[in-house]
Amino acid sequence: MLNWLFKTIFQLLGWKVINAPNVPKGLFVVAPHSFTSDFFIGLCTRPMVNLNIKYLGKAELFRPPFGWIFRKLGGTPVHRTKSTNFVQQVAETFKKHEKLLVAIAPEGTRKNVSKLRTGFYYMAHAANVPIIMSGFDYPRKSVIFAEPFITSGDFEADMKKYFVPFFKSIHGVQKDWLKNYEEGKFNV
């Protein structure tokens, strides 16, 4: 419905997509999450890659008066409580669908953090779906996608093998979590 508008805005702003993925199922891990505009760039990217990517967001975004907009744009609220096993719920949802693409910002905030929230990793691992890393390279006005990979079950090894090299290549990513992971510090 709004795809033509988002596509037009994306092109008018001079953004481009690099290495667009073609997968029926997967978890898109989007970073860095530094600006409010990240959400808008993400919305504009979906029609450019011709994929119906849903997203997970904090529950507070889905409250009135604007919550309906976030749902209409493909969002699902995340309620962060200790009594909810959200990782397992997402994994089960993936298993029930032949095609499902979901995006998540593992930093969980626009602030600089020392480590990523790990739920995304365990969601993908439990569901046996690939992770597709997605980087917003603001200096080059590019949304860059990595090749999809299946998790090994070893969070630290996969961070070193896939995440650190990919996100180091994204201009503008100067986050504490990246530096810590590069140095092998995962429990900061």
TrEMBL record:
- The organism is Emticicia aquatica
SMART domains, per database record: PlsC
Pathway assigned in UniProt: Lipid metabolism
Q: Which domain of life is it from?
A: Bacteria
InterPro entries given for it? Answer: Plipid/glycerol_acylTrfase (IPR002123)
Protein name from the UniProt record: Phospholipid/glycerol acyltransferase domain-containing protein
Describe the location of the Phospholipid/glycerol acyltransferase domain by residue ranges. 27-136
Keyword annotations of the record: Acyltransferase, Transferase
